[in-house]
Amino acid sequence: MERTRxxxxxxxxxxxxxxxxxxxKVENRETDQIDSNIRxxxxxxxxxxxxxxxxxxxxxxxxxxxxxxxxxxxxxxxxMISWNDSVPYTYRTLVKRLNAICGVNNYNISGDLEDYAxxxxxxxDIPGQTKEVEEALGKILPENIAYSLNNKLLREIHGGVMLTxxxxxxxxxxxxxxx
Length: 179
Fold this sequence. Notes:
By secondary structure, the protein is mostly helical. The protein is built from 6 helices and 3 strands, in the order αααααββαβ. Among the domains are: 38 residues; 68 residues, GMP Synthetase, Chain A, domain 3 (2-Layer Sandwich). The protein has a 3-stranded mixed beta sheet, covered by helices on one side.
């Protein structure tokens, strides 16, 4: 959306002065920068919409130190997991938490709750995200519940396979010096 230029707010008689026009050009650059900064702050109000600057602010608040080479998506995922960190002591709350972390239908929970054992299988594509889920589960599950976490990546591979075959005939001949 195009913002009204500052010179348009002045009376018509003042708009014709060259000095005023130059002053307004400089001030327009300053107000454009202010508008840009305001937009950036508003966009960073939601973790999913953050850029590098915004996610860095969330990481500072939460005390998260990103690893070298972490992608923006992985950093957002890590911040989202930490931001929503709470201890669920019910199965229903655990399911809601996994929905928030992994996405609906991107995981499967099995195991035996009577024996306090869970097996969680996720389907996540972002490298490093499984590690973040494992750390979150370590924080949110009670200590008396054992769990295992597996990540399944489903990939479609298109192409052909060339097969070859061969028949080998083998004979063993033994020569000895026995008489």
